[in-house]
Amino acid sequence: MKLVLATDGAVADGGGPEIFASLQGEGPSVGTPVAFMRLSRCNLACTWCDTAYTWRFDESRPHRDGIAFERKANQAALEVADVAARILALGQKRLVITGGEPLLQGAALADLMALIPDMEIEIETNGTTKAPSHVDIRVDQYNVSPKLAHSGNEGSQALIPERLDFYACDPRAYFKFVIAKPEDVKEVLELQRRYMFKPGHVFLMPEGTDSETLRAREEWLSPLCLQHGFRMSDRLHIHLYGDERGT
Question: Quick check: 39 and 6 in contact, CB under 8 A?
Fold first, then answer.
């Protein structure tokens, strides 16, 4: 079985599968040395997505940058055994599986996890789907990022009650909301009231792909976190490496 991965650059320019070692830049594991694997494909289309090369292969799915990516140049299909070997070669104890939406490839992920039995597993998901049992049993942490109205997705597609109920009841799940303006926090409060997310498991993270924008938004976001009891997530990798693939 194969996994379809994003690439760390256009294939024609020597790009390969986006499997790399770095520091986790967001959420409860921020600063932790990890291996990253970024999978291609997504069932949502966030207008501000900073990894649109994983899903925007035509102009029918809107994005603020207006750039469509050539599929063959930005996808790499690898045998699961090859993926496992590349991950293990990085020498890290923890694997972060991100996307796109990685749980769209649940069957192949189950095969992968059988080949890396000693690694801790952290999965980043938009919360619209759930892992098959052979994947779920191996997961140490879910970073669930439900998409608010400013993402441009229809609420019926992005906020599925059955799925949010499922993650809200899972002690492994943390919720990370992308915030572009103060008014977005009202939506988070409504979701908090409805789904009763666990205290300390909700992060607010400023939207932005450069340090200047992140810092400016954190100035008004930090007091809102303090007021409502939410945790704030920075984007450490942006400050360290910029908005670059493979970081």
Answer: yes
Distance, CA of 55 to CA of 3 (rounded, Å): 15
The answer to whether the CB of 235 falls within 8 A of the CB of 206 is: yes
What are residue 182's phi and psi, to 5 degrees? -55, -35
Q: What does pTM read for this prediction?
A: 0.96
Model pLDDT for residues 149-186, shown as the tens digit of each residue: 999 999 999 999 999 999 999 999 999 999 999 999 99
* Closest C-alpha among 29, 20, 36 to residue 95: 36
Distance of alpha carbon 92 from alpha carbon 29, whole angstroms: 14
Q: What angle do CA 121, 100, 178 make, to 5 degrees?
A: 90
Give residue 39's Cα distance to chain centre: 10
